[in-house]
Amino acid sequence: MSNLVVNQLTHPQRVRLLYKTILRLHRGMPTELRALGDGYVRDEFRRHLKCNPMEAQLFMTEWARYASTITQQLGLRGKPKGELGEEMDPNAVEMLKDDQVVQLYELMLAAKGLDGDTITADDVRGSSKSK
């Protein structure tokens, strides 16, 4: 889609376009990873329906970056060209809120197929106070 057309879209239309693009990209992933990714994307987009404009801009930027990364990693035919994903910058991890750290940890457990080992935001706060 050309920049001219995208610039004419309303914010909700841009969000919907990005959401559908990501779900379409996930079709090229292995079945288990696609199910995990689709669920996570749905949850994140629902969770940010009523966020403030500054959070919305950051949200859209990061998800557009994700879509770009997945596009490069899947290639034109939608087949992975090696590893999917990328390492997270340790500085970015340090800037996450407690509930985001919990969510990231639970996502890692789900991706690795580990069940039952969950933590809460209180666990994160408690462990950071003891350090």
Automatic annotation (TrEMBL):
GO cellular component, one term: mitochondrial intermembrane space
Signal peptide: none
Annotated keywords: Chaperone, Mitochondrion, Transit peptide
GO biological process, one term: response to oxidative stress
Transmembrane segments: none
Subcellular location: Mitochondrion matrix
Protein purpose: Plays an essential role in the assembly of succinate dehydrogenase (SDH), an enzyme complex (also referred to as respiratory complex II) that is a component of both the tricarboxylic acid (TCA) cycle and the mitochondrial electron transport chain, and which couples the oxidation of succinate to fumarate with the reduction of ubiquinone (coenzyme Q) to ubiquinol. Promotes maturation of the iron-sulfur protein subunit of the SDH catalytic dimer, protecting it from the deleterious effects of oxidants. May act together with SDHAF1.
Protein family according to the UniProt entry: Belongs to the complex I LYR family. SDHAF3 subfamily.
Subunit (UniProt): Interacts with the iron-sulfur protein subunit within the SDH catalytic dimer.
Name of the featured protein: Succinate dehydrogenase assembly factor 3
Source organism: Drosophila persimilis
